[in-house]
Amino acid sequence: MEQMKLESNVFSVLKDKIQLIKKNESAIYLVGPIQLPVNLYGETVVFQWYCWLNYDEVTEDYEKIIDKLSSSNLAEFQQSSVLVYGDFENTEDALIRMHSICHTGDIFGSKRCDCGFQLKESMKKIKDHGSGALFYLANHEGRGIGLFSKAMAYVLQENGYDTVEANESLGFVNDSRNYDDAIQVLKTLRSKPVTLITNNPEKLEALKSAGLQVAGRSPLWGDVSEYNKKYLETKINKSGHLEMEGTCPND
After folding, report:
1. Which helix (H) or strand (E) holds 150?
2. Residue positions annotated with a catalytic role
3. Answer CATH for 78-237 from 3.40.50.10990, 3.30.1490.100, 1.10.287.3510, 3.30.930.10
C-alpha cells in the first residue's frame, strides 16, 4: 500500500511537466521545464531545460509511459534535450542553435573540431541576447554515423582522408542528420520567428522547409588551430558551410 502511495505521489509531481507531441504513428514526450544553473565562462547562468523521448506508443496516459521506462533500458539510447533562456515563447527575437552531440569535442574538449567551442559560444550568445534555445541533438554524433563509426573515421583521417572522404569510405553519406523531432519540439515551445546560430545552410533549409519563420542567421566561426584547420576547410569546400565575411579558417 505504501509503495502504491509513493508511486501516486511521484506521478502527481511529474504529470504537469510532461507534454505529448503527436507524430504519425509515434510520439515525442517532452518533459520540462527544469531549472538548470550552468557555469558559463565563470558565470552562473540559469537556463530552463527540457528533454524529449521519441516513443512508439501514442497516449496521454503518462503514468503508463512512466511505468514502462524502468524496463526499457533507456540508458542504452541517448535522448535529446533543449536549454531555454529568457522568455523564449513570447519575445519577438530569439536565437536558437541546433547543436549536434560531439562526445570528443563537447566532453573532452578535443581540438580536432570546433564543436566544444560552438557549444559554449552558442550558450553565451543566447544568454547575451536575452532569449533563445540550444537544442542538443543526441543522435547526431559524427553527422549521424555514431560514435564507433566516428572513431573509425578518425583513424582514416589520421591516414590522409578528410572528414567527408572518411565518412563516405565507411559507406555513409556525408551528412545523415535529421532535424524533424527537434523542429517539432521547437514548434511546441515557440511560434514566433527565430534567428539560427549556424554556418550550415542545410540547417537553415530544414527549418524553412518545415514552415518555420527564420528571421536570419548568426554565424559561428572560431577556435581555429593547427589541429582542426583541414576539418574547417572541408566544412566550407565540401559541405557547403557559409564562411563568415572577413574571416577565413585558412588564416
Report:
1. helix 147-157
2. 175, 177
3. 3.40.50.10990
